[in-house]
Write a structure and sequence with these properties.
Keywords: ATP-binding, Kinase, Lyase, NAD, NADP, Nucleotide-binding, Transferase. This is ADP-dependent (S)-NAD(P)H-hydrate dehydratase. The protein is of the alpha/beta class. Helix content is 46%, strand content 13%. It has one domain: Ribokinase (UDP-N-acetylmuramoyl-L-alanine:D-glutamate ligase, 3-Layer(aba) Sandwich). The chain has a nine-stranded mixed sheet with strand order 1-9-8-7-6-5-4-2-3, sandwiched between helices. Strand 4, helix 5 and strand 5 form a beta-alpha-beta unit. Helix 11 crosses helix 12. The protein starts with a strand and ends with a helix. It binds ligand NPW and adenosine-5'-diphosphate. The site of adenosine-5'-diphosphate (ADP) has 16 residues, from helix 9.
Length: 270
């Protein structure tokens, strides 16, 4: 039996790193990003956009050339040179079989920093030297565990917990309700409108989470359960930004990303 604690907007406020006077771009945290592919470059653009909108010192984007060009066109703030990072985000918009960035991902995974594994990089969890969070939807979790999709859809809370225990990582299982299971911790949140069921929504969540992880890298090393709290906070932010972008109607994912700064400002104010 898995008992989940509801994670709220109020709980999430403490997971937003507000810069101090003494901060610079490096001390705030640098997120390394290896996402997108020649086939799906849009996922890279969305993830980087969402990460920057969430507030991080720098994004280093190291994905395929076509995606890098589009990322830079949209976000010239992104840096495409290698260098030190406080966390990695990888896999969104990547085919899990034909991974053109596999060598870069394996090299990055050898670094002992926290890593967010999404989409086509989920199964690389056992190659990571640092703390890992995986962010599957139902179908991806079924593939990862070699389980039945219908069983997962019928009991996502139980399956998120089971996946965390079996794989030895923190799991964020996506859906109308998001379930997060980590070491000794199970959290759930359902702050998102169903308008969020649109392509690219998961890529934005991964970017928001990457940003929160990069700005709390040291805290995660000290307390492994912190990764779950950050993940639940990312899902809350994602849901509230979706609500703001939607206003009761349809939304696009870049509108969601654009709504993240005001969502954070409102959370910090209230
Ligand atoms: N902006 C970007 O760059 C974005 C890029 N993205 C990336 O795109 C890639 C390919 O995504 P995709 O959904 O096309 O994957 P695909 O393996 O064909 O199908 C997976 C399953 O879905 C089902 N299914 C599909 N269509 C269906 C339908 N009309 N109606 C009902 N079912 C349908 C289909 O079921 P089947 O047809 O087999 O019954 C299959 O089992 C992926 O790598 C993702 O990361 C996303 O992150 C979004 C934003
Ligand atoms: N019906 C829904 N209500 C609320 N949120 C949803 C709903 N369906 C999907 N979502 C959210 O949208 C996102 C979809 O992620 P994902 O399936 O990875 O999409 P994509 O691959 O298109 O980016 C997740 O954050 C999920 O929680």
């Amino acid at each position: 039996m898995s008992t989940y604690t509801a994670w709220t907007a109020r709980d999430s406020v403490g997971r937003i790193a507000v810069p101090r006077e003494s901060d610079d771009k490096y001390s705030r945290g640098v997120l390394g990003v290896i996402t997108g592919s020649t086939m799906y470059p849009g996922a890279a653009v969305i993830g980087v956009e969402a990460a920057l909108r969430t507030g991080v010192g720098m994004v280093r984007y190291l994905g395929p050339e076509r995606a890098a060009g589009l990322v830079l066109q949209r976000r010239p703030e992104a840096v495409t040179s290698e260098g030190r990072v406080q966390a990695w985000l990888m896999g969104s918009g990547m085919d899990h079989v034909e991974r053109e960035s596999l060598a870069q991902m394996v090299e990055a995974l050898a670094q002992p920093v926290p890593v967010v594994l999404d989409g086509g990089a989920l199964d690389l969890y056992d190659r990571a030297a640092g703390p890992v969070i995986v962010t599957p939807h139902f179908r991806e979790l079924a593939r990862l565990l070699d389980a039945n999709l219908a069983d997962i859809a019928a009991g996502p809370a139980v399956w998120a917990r089971r996946a965390a225990d079996e794989l030895g990582v923190t799991v964020l299982l996506k859906g109308h309700t998001t379930y997060v299971a980590g070491p000794g911790i199970s959290l759930s949140t359902a702050s998102a409108p169903s308008w969020l069921a649109t392509a690219g929504a998961g890529d934005a969540l991964a970017g928001i989470l990457g940003s929160l992880v990069a700005t709390h890298s040291a805290r995660i090393q000290d307390d492994p359960a912190e990764l779950a709290r950050l993940a639940a906070s990312a899902a809350v932010l994602h849901g509230l930004a979706a609500e703001r972008a939607s206003g009761g109607g349809p939304l696009t994912i870049l509108d969601l990303a654009a709504a993240v700064p005001a969502t954070i400002a409102a959370l910090l104010r209230d």
